[in-house]
Write a structure and sequence with these properties.
Layout: H1 3-22, E1 28-35, H2 41-50, E2 55-62, H3 65-82, E3 104-108, H4 109-117, E4 121-122, H5 130-134, H6 137-141, E5 144-145, E6 156-157, E7 160-172, H7 173-179, E8 198-200, H8 204-214, H9 230-240, E9 241-244, H10 250-255, E10 260-264, H11 265-271, E11 278-281, E12 288-297, H12 300-303, H13 309-324, H14 326-335, H15 353-356, H16 365-368, E13 372-373, H17 379-394
Parallel strand pairs: 1-2, 1-3, 8-9, 8-10, 12-13
Antiparallel strand pairs: 3-12, 4-12, 5-6, 7-10, 7-11, 7-12
Length: 395
């Protein structure tokens, strides 16, 4: 799905509904700030059909999850400022103005702990939704947290997963045809033929994590000092690497300067058929998982649609539940570069062949069972990662 088609679709939808809103002062507003390209615009048209009341939909894309997190910080500050009225507030166009807080915002599961701790978001009351009950436990557990942002099966629901992906190994088919083998697992990155041929993510959690996985351990080991030979394995992998990058790792692979790249499934899938010499696999021993979530900004109910709070809340619940319905989940997965979490609770026989046969988009259950989300870390463990990472990179 091209960025241009997404923006054009969203713009057309927003303009059309804005115009209808001019004729109906009672029309509700449903505003969503989302990660660019994470929702096919066709899905918004389908959602509009299920609404039984006039609603002005505003789906506004941002290019980076970091920008969306900053938006949450801005809205929190806005709410706090409104609690301290000043003389300027009574003067039109000079006071706080109308900086509408979105009903929902995209946030990566990695950011969830900090957002809860900083009180940037509020719990979602969606436990009664049919779609929530249909999700596999894996997806429910990553968003159930206590007030410290820690995983807690008895905690509240702080996000609604709507798409997910994996960390994968991408490689040049032409180069490996010459070698006579193909990568299948993390351990292949240590093979001597790949010396100075690999792009690694500039992410200590990912690189140290895949090394732990190669050693038969978990991404979420809680004491690195107790892992024998970890530093030795990391140094060996470091000597294999030609570069570290989290956003430019595909370019050298496309150009043939590297033969292998560790990256994220969405980036690889977005290449489509444009680069035929590149293939990718999800490692057999399992990989790290990530999810994009719908979260609700703190203060939403008080700041949006004054006097219509109940109706506004029902709309955000309808959108979340709609995105989890089988038909919508399949459409999202077919049209985008990441699958819906709902697919993992649907029998493969009931999925379109294009989805069921795509092991990069939807890995085998045997691989999924060995894969993990990156759990929140203690301050002590974060320090361990930083020290080890800096030591390896200086070597």
């Amino acid at each position: 799905m091209k960025r241009r088609s997404f923006i054009t679709g969203v713009s057309a939808l927003a303009v059309g509904q804005l115009m209808s809103g001019c004729n109906n002062s009672q029309e509700l507003s449903f505003k969503v700030k989302l990660l660019q390209d994470s929702i096919p615009f066709q899905l918004l048209g389908e959602f509009r059909k299920v609404l039984k009341q006039p609603v002005k939909l505003k789906f506004e894309p941002e290019s980076q999850l970091r920008d969306l997190y900053k938006r949450l910080e801005t809205w929190k500050k806005q709410v706090e400022e409104k609690k301290k009225p000043t003389l300027w507030d009574s003067i039109p166009f000079i006071g706080h103005g109308n900086r509408e807080i979105a009903s929902l915002v995209t946030l990566g599961d990695y950011w969830l702990e900090a957002a809860i701790q900083q009180k940037l978001i509020q719990p979602l009351k969606i436990e009664e939704l049919g779609g929530w009950k249909e999700l596999s436990p894996r997806w429910r557990e990553i968003v159930m947290r206590n007030e410290k942002g820690e995983l807690d099966k008895s905690g509240e629901i702080w996000g609604a997963p709507y798409r997910w992906g994996t960390t994968v190994i991408a490689y040049r088919r032409d180069k490996f045809e010459e070698l006579g083998w193909k990568p299948k697992d993390w351990s292949d990155l240590w093979r001597t033929e790949l010396r100075d041929r690999i792009s690694l993510l500039d992410q200590p959690r990912e690189v140290i994590g895949l090394t732990l996985k190669k050693m038969g351990l978990s991404y979420n080991e809680t004491d690195l000092s107790q892992v024998a030979n970890l530093k030795k394995e990391l140094l060996a992998l470091h000597r294999q690497a030609k570069l570290y990058s989290s956003d430019r790792y595909l370019e050298p692979l496309v150009l043939g300067d590297t033969w292998v790249a560790v990256g994220w499934s969405t980036d690889i899938l977005s290449l489509g058929e444009s680069v035929r010499d590149i293939e990718a696999i999800v490692p057999e021993s399992g990989t790290s998982l990530w999810a994009d979530l719908w979260v609700q900004p703190a203060g939403f109910a008080k700041e949006s649609n004054p006097g219509k709070t109940t109706d506004s809340i029902s709309i955000y619940k309808k959108w979340i539940d709609f995105s989890w319905q089988k038909e919508a989940a399949i459409s999202m997965s077919l049209l985008g570069d990441a699958p819906s979490p709902r697919l993992t609770s649907i029998e493969q026989a009931n999925l379109p062949k294009k989805l069921a046969d795509n092991n990069l988009l939807l890995p085998d259950n045997s691989v999924m069972d060995k894969s993990e989300f990156l759990s929140p870390m203690s301050a002590k463990l974060i320090k361990e990662y930083q020290v080890l990472w800096e030591e390896i990179r200086r070597s």
